[in-house]
Amino acid sequence: MSPEVVAHRGASTRRPEHTLAAYELALRQGADGLECDVRLTKDGHLVCVHDRTIDRTSDGSGVVSELTLAELRRHDFGSWHGGEPADVLTLDALLGLAADHGTRLFIETKHPVRYRGDVERSLAEELDRHRVDAVMMSFSVFAVNRFKQLRPDLPTVLLYDRLWPRARPRFADYAGPGVDLLRRHPDRGEGVYTWTADDPADIALCRERGVRFLATNNPDETRAHLAAN
Ligand code: G3P
Ligand code: CA
């Protein structure tokens, strides 16, 4: 069976990552799911920003957790990539989009240890307010465990970058190896979430191994490769 195509930060090659434009394009390109990273602002809002700071992906600078949502809204998160100006994307807005389209949302919490569970608690509360097919993800076992206790009904992915342990904790429903780990473990891959596979050889590998969810920055090209091979 073909892996489900998950748009990593939206259709992030063609549009500025984590903007509404990137996610809308991913949906038009036929992505089965959407991936995002979330961080807490100083005043407790979850926003979709990958880095600790907004320096790379906006016309501003500063640490996300030291800025309020109103301060973040003064900056443009689109033009850096050559796109239209764009507001910082709140998780609330992205959940609205996912709900409207009936699309699964893969939500990765960043820096869970530093904030002692605040990110996971806020995420659980926010998901209580939306009817969305959501999957929680993190590189931190503590974060995944904590979230599972709050929302045992929602699936979780434990992400792996350098090492892929054989045993997976009970609270992690899926393993989430990077694609380089998949290459290094020829006997594994069945039913996992893999990131980030843009290269045709990696896309083919994901299918051969029975990967269930394939995160890509190019949902259209990935779909085309899967359909043609
Ligand atoms: O989908 C998981 C992947 O996004 C993890 O890496 O750095 O892109 O958040 P990163
Ligand atoms: Ca991510």
TrEMBL record:
Keywords: Hydrolase. It comes from the Bacteria. Residues 3-226 form the GP-PDE domain. The keyword DNA repair does not apply. PROSITE patterns: GP_PDE (PS51704). Its EC number is 3.1.4.46. It is an enzyme of class 3 (hydrolase). One of its GO terms (biological process) is lipid metabolic process. Pfam families: GDPD. GO terms for molecular function: glycerophosphodiester phosphodiesterase activity. This is Glycerophosphoryl diester phosphodiesterase. The lineage of its organism: Bacteria, Bacillati, Actinomycetota, Actinomycetes, Pseudonocardiales.
